[in-house]
């Protein structure tokens, strides 16, 4: 067997893809050839979803139809039996566990569940992208003993999510912040969760199964779970004055600092600056600039001492926390956006499928003789 062995598949190219390009040396990220810096300025999450799935920017008419479908109550609402099921879960179930369970359960209610045609997978992708924010917001309210808020089809996906969490009309800044955060998290080439989703899709399994695989992989602290760990670090640091000494001690203790480093970027992640700006604006609006000040100090010291740079997870949580969103909701918010990328990759995988089945370099025992239990 001829084989290339790289721990963690580092730099191994496993497939071609037309969806997302990362330039790790220059710090650039393109969706279908469009720079995220430009998309953040001019686009909306809904338009980015269209772009990722269809490969082109929509005409006005196509965008209107797409937004109407994505934001309709019919697609956003949860089956009542699913809400009944959520009520049975222990209140301590984390939002990410609820999302994983809820997406799996949604398959049981989906009329296209077993149909893997491009048309059916696109319909399912629209429903899941529309339903996931409703699921996340519903659990947040249920665990606080409140009634879920029905989605409002007049609001964008970002604005509606903020509305369903609080029951109050979202501010323009909150809506904009969420929209930009959703754009920035929507896709990232063959990251761990997308790879997991593609591996599942490549067995000719269905969209919901692939998305559940993605959610499971995203949950870990080395991937999407890092945004929650960053906020736990900020809580431990407590004040900007303590940040310098705290982070130097953590580095001296050889701690892994969440929100830093990347398998592909050798410079700062191009998404981080946008999230820092929004976290800073929101912090000023709510009169709490301490999170961003703490993170700026941490970033300065880690960059100087370790030559590793902020990634997407460093500042996102500071923005969400300024809106009063609990820390364990940060990774589900990441998933609400990444579902767009996962679905794009499932469509691409199914269009040119080959089973993904790598090999292991065997380092176990050589052949052994079986020993009956009474002689062991
Ligand atoms: N803090 C301290 N040291 C680090 C960090 C970090 N965040 N990241 C890398 N290093 C060091 C690591 O200790 C190792 O040093 P040495 O060679 O002396 O042992 C070297 O850099 C290479 O690290 P690695 O773990 O082999 O690198 P990787 O490419 O396997 O890991 C990573 C990439 C993202 C898992 C890692 O940088 C990390 O653990 N970062 C913290 C978690 C995090 O923020 N994850 C989010 C990633 S970006 C968005 C997303 O995917 O969700």
Distance between the termini: 35 Å
Give a count of the beta strands, DSSP E runs of length 2 or more. Answer: 3
Largest sheet: 3 strands, antiparallel
The name of the CATH topology of the largest domain is Citrate Synthase, domain 1
The SS-based structural class is: mainly alpha
Descriptive terms for the model:
376 residues, 2 domains, 17 helices, three-stranded antiparallel β-sheet, Citrate Synthase, domain 1, binds carboxymethyl coenzyme *A, Cytochrome p450-Terp, domain 2
How would you characterize this protein structure?
This protein is mainly alpha-helical. It has two domains: about 20-220 and about 330-350, Citrate Synthase, domain 1 (Orthogonal Bundle); about 225-320, Cytochrome P450-Terp, domain 2 (Cytochrome p450-Terp, domain 2), CATH 1.10.230.10. The protein contains 17 helices and three strands. Strands 1-2-3 form a three-stranded antiparallel β-sheet. α9 (about 170-185) packs across α17 (about 330-350), α12 crosses α16 and α14 runs parallel beside α16. The longest helix is centred in the middle third of the chain and has 26 residues, at about 120-145. The two termini are about 35 Å apart. The structure holds carboxymethyl coenzyme *A. The site of carboxymethyl coenzyme *A has 19 residues, from loops. Carboxymethyl coenzyme *A binds near residues 222, 224, 262, 308 and 311.
